[in-house]
Amino acid sequence: MLPYAIDEMISAKSIAARVEALARTISDHFADTDKLVVVGLLRGSFIFIADLVRELDLPVEVDFIEASSYGDGVESSREVRILKDLRSGIEGRDVLVVEDIVDTGWTLNHVRGMLEARNPARLEVCALLDKPSRREVDIRATWTGFEIPDEFVVGYGIDYAQRNRNLPHIGKVRFLPS
Ligand code: 5GP
Ligand code: MG
Ligand code: MG
Fold this sequence. Notes:
With 178 residues, the chain is an alpha/beta fold. It has helices at residues 12-29, 46-55, 106-116; strands spanning 4-10, 36-42, 60-68, 81-84, 94-102, 122-130, 143-147, 153-154, 170-175.
């Protein structure tokens, strides 16, 4: 691995304020739901989903999908594999997919298509981060936390080669000359 430094891009305080605002919007949108199925995409969304569900003023069920596209590199492979599927059926249910970053859009496109095929009543997506300049598939989250430039980021659940998920803020990785 190349030596690198991490520069803070979004503070823990800004993230908390934004998560609270997103949760209010989502609670309003699904106000009449029986029970919302909140689906986290492992592993990058685990901290975001934990914070988000605690701010939701709704009955919720939490489930997870693990999709892989990246391996340990920094480039999307465009091929999405499902490593772990939902435990529960979602037919006729209200579903919120929680994603860490929408980058090229391949992952969300694949997961969304797979879940839509199961005929949920409503399916919306909340992504913490969006890099619109990187998009290869015409898809967007219903709600986005922050739009960011084309930088490789870590922290708040998001890793670089499985490290830095425990940073409380979002930082950008700056590679150093070795
Ligand atoms: P996409 O399929 O949209 O290209 O990529 C989606 C996934 O790639 C994200 O959910 C995330 O796991 C990973 N990814 C995209 N950009 C970054 C980044 O800047 N840092 C890290 N660590 N992962 C990223
Ligand atoms: Mg992800
Ligand atoms: Mg990753």
